[in-house]
Design a protein that fits this description.
Layout: H1 15-31, E1 34-38, E2 41-45, E3 52-60, E4 63-71
Antiparallel strand pairs: 1-2, 3-4
Length: 98
């Protein structure tokens, strides 16, 4: 049995940097390998088969939260559900008078 490997990284980033991270995650899923590394350590994951997906979005009192979670087993899984649509919103228009 392989020993457990954990990786955690937390920071504050601008939206463009986060978009690059998400593009890298997308490319990793397509390639079948996701590599995460920082000064604290690294981990490589190999997504395949059916992948569990959880999305949670909240807006409360001016605070926003988006939580994405992916999970899978090395031995594959069962059939997936394709009932979710995710679409980008329109860029925010900034009023010049503000």
């Amino acid at each position: 049995m392989e020993k457990e490997t954990r990786f955690k990284y937390e920071s504050v980033q601008d939206a463009q940097t986060l978009a690059r991270y998400l593009e890298a995650v997308t490319a990793g899923f397509a390639a079948g390998e996701l590599r995460f590394s920082s000064r604290e350590g690294e981990v490589a994951l190999h997504p395949g088969g059916v992948i569990g997906f959880l999305v949670e979005a909240k807006s409360m009192g001016g605070r926003m939260k988006l939580h994405l979670k992916f999970s899978w087993r090395e031995d594959g899984g069962e059939d997936g559900d394709t009932g979710l649509t995710i679409a980008p919103g329109q860029p925010a228009a900034h009023d010049a008078d503000e």
